[in-house]
Amino acid sequence: MAVATNQTILVVGGGISGLTAALEAAECGKDVILIEKNPSLGGRISQLYKYFPKLCHPSCGLEINLRRLKGNRNVRVMTLTEVSAVSGETGNYSVTLKRSPRYVNDRCTACGECGKVVEADFDDEFHYGMKQRKGAYLPFSMAYPQRYVLDPCIIGSDDADKAKAACPMDAIDLDMQEETLELNIGAIIWATGWRPYDANKIQPYGYDRFDNVITNVEFERMLDPFGPTGGKILRPSDGKEARDIAFIQCAGSRDENHLKHCSRICCMASLKQATYVREQYGDEGKSSIYYIDIRAIDRLDNFFAKVKADETVSFIKSKVASITEDKASGNPVLHGVNVEGYHRYSNPHELVVLAIGMEPSVSRDEFPVDVVIDDNGFVEADESNGAIFAAGCTADALDVNRAVQNATASALRAIQVINRVAAQEAASGAEG
Amino acid sequence: MSDMGSVAIEKYRNNNYRNNFLHEVEAHVEGGEWVKMCMQCGVCAGSCPLGPHWAHPPQEIFMMIRAGKREEVLTSDSMWMCTSCYNCIVRCPRGLPITHIMHGLAHYAHRLGLAPEKQPTREFAKLFWDNITKNGRANELKMGLSLYFKDGFGSGVKEAMKNKALGQAMMKTKRMNPMEFFGGHGVKDKSGLHAMLAKAREIEDAKFEQGK
After folding, report:
1. Per-residue DSSP letters for A91-133?
2. Contact at 8 Å (CB) between A392 and A403?
3. Cβ–Cβ below 8 Å for A250 and B51
4. Which of its termini does chain B have fewer beta carbons within 10 Å around, N or C?
5. Could you tell me if residue A172 is inside a domain?
């Protein structure tokens, strides 16, 4: 491993923003260390079925980025790694990293023998708990690195010994320990991304009470051919196909009681998901979008126009007041007033998708270093942050397109710092 | 900024030609300055337990204010239907104090003499005010009776007879004293209380006249 110096850039977070920032800097010849908390790179985009507005698959873009990564010697990837402390100043930071054990070394070929013998099941984080995974598992099919990981909960149990015995490559090392590393770093790019807002907090919508009220990120998982429903839109209550689907916009966003900011992605996400309904059922499907106003800006407006022209998609201008459940059918019933004409409604639907907004993954008080954070929890661009630059959804609520642009910009800022450090070192070297 | 620009803005602020009623509400109605913050999402109307019985739900009232529909708003019985359950305030994504605005509008319409005459909530409010300010304590017996007899003697007797059992039970358990009918209990310094209320009314009236 290359020794980290104050000409090294640390990128925190291996989602699309972190990957982009790391690759752009590395392809400019800079040394980059890319760390990721989870066992695999990929982040939230790996959990999406399609991107808007082109409706292409995120796996395609992820594959391109992973190829760039494999072909570049300047990036060092560390998974299961988190930042625990940062000190120092621009061009000269000391960073403490905590690396959790994977219990699987680099001899792993992802053959899957260990997963077959382990008995304990866990909620699969990749599928938001809609499916179970084994205690020895590959995080998802495109995981990078392509290595299994043992759940720390099975360490010390029979399952761990069984997994070790089953491995034909002798890749399982149950003695791996947590490590602490101290690195010298010149600039830091924070790309820790976002998490979906906790739908349980929106009490009137009954996400915690009604099976057939789900979130938009869960809906994405349903469309995955290898996902919890095998690519079908099924109701969690009875496993029946849902053809009449309601989307509730601003579920938690633009709300003084929840997230004050507009999450920017949810309108487009619901429009996109309405195309999934058409894809599955043709004219037999029905999407109803309950909205305050549809925020599809610039070129995205064309996509909105296209979805609006679809006769199976209807738009109801109303923030839904509450949801109840029809016990006999299991249908959620939406109550509210359509403000176009002030019509009161109580509309049953087979499935309700809450267009949940995004909040920063790292909350204000968890941040291991002093940076300027705005009212909504996003890191502001501020001179007092020194050479700590936010990228993607650490900086603001952004879609993938804008997150990648933002990450490229933050890579450029980090490169400027590194170039300055290099010039100073060259000058002092010449003097000495 | 050019002079012409600031003149135009000043003119707009002085509400010489637009949004007269919105400015009036902002100036005179408790919580009125919040009206412009409504984004017409409709969650208040959908959350109101009495919603189906109002002519205009809150977000419609707010829109009507902005549209300058003065008569329609102030003569409406809608804001009198509010039971102060606070569901709308809790759910409003913009944090508007909707309940307070409704009461503010009702109060303003009442002061202007535009509130609907026979609106039951308004009548009850008037009866209650007269009842409690007389002695400084609520006289429940008289309150009940005046409510029964508000539509005349005949219907009053009928109403009172309907609730005979309840009244007797309350008397039996010493929850209601029939002697309250003759005067009733009150605060120690009644004339002091009346002087205070009169002064408050004077200040309020002066403010109202000034703002008109």
Report:
1. TEEEEEEEE---SB-TT-----HHHHH---EEE-GGGTTSSEE
2. yes
3. no
4. N
5. no
Q: What is the CATH number of domain B7-112?
A: 1.10.1060.10
- Residues A258, A227, single domain; the answer is yes
Rg (CA), chain A: 23
Under 8 Å CB pairs connecting chains A and B tally to 62
Chain A residue with minimal CA distance to B61? Answer: A342
- pLDDT, tens digit (0-9, with 9 covering 90-100), for B144-190: 888 888 888 888 888 888 888 988 898 899 888 888 888 888 899 99
CATH number, domain of A50, equals 3.50.50.60
Digit-coded pLDDT (tens) for A83-133 = 999 999 999 999 999 999 999 999 999 999 999 999 999 999 999 999 999
- Can you give the residue ranges of every domain in chain B? 7-112, 120-211
A253 and A395 both lie in a single domain: no
pLDDT at B6 over 70: no
CB A324, CB A332: distance < 8 Å:
yes
Q: Give the residue from B37, B40, B43 with the most A CB atoms within 10 Å of its CB, the best one to mutate.
A: B43
* C-alpha distance from B96 to closest chain A C-alpha (Å): 10
A339 and B41 Cβ atoms separated by less than 8 Å: yes
- Structural domain boundaries, residue A286: 196-357
Which tokens belong to A325? 């459940």
More confident: A161 or A341? A161
* A395-422 b/e (C-beta count within 10 Å ≥ 16 → b): bbbbbbebbbebbbbbbebbbebbeebb
Work out the pLDDT band at B8, boundaries 50, 70, 90: low
What's the total number of domains in chain A? 3
Asked if the structure places residue A3 within a domain, the reply is no
Give the residue numbers in B contacting A (CB under 8 Å), as ranges.
Answer: 39-43, 45-47, 51-52, 56-57, 59-60, 90-95
How much of chain A, in percent, has pLDDT values that exceed 90?
95
Domain for residue A105, yes or no? Answer: no
